[in-house]
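Appendix B. Chain record.
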Amino acid sequence: MISTIIYRVLTSPYVRFVRVADGFVWNVATSLMSAVTAWGDSDTALTRDTTYIGGTPITIPTALPAGSYDMLIYEGATPAATDSVVIGKRIEWNGNQIIGDPRDI
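Structure tokens predicted for this chain:
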């Protein structure tokens, strides 16, 4: 299920989820929140859909615990800590869907 869509054209986007309460990052490799994780274990590649949507869908992991998150979208073919955030949104996640509208951060 698509959670949200971004319409900015990006070449090699990826997303990371950082919990606002404690700064823990979603670890894609373990499907758990983590205080310390390798950068490459915390990114999810995004793919633009030019056929049907005309944007880049973002699917939030179903195992992501409910809470407030900074959804950070980066541009980088090989994700690295030196990449800059190109889109930052604060989201409220209830465990199944985003509640309300994502806010810019």
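Further analysis of this model is presented in Appendix C.
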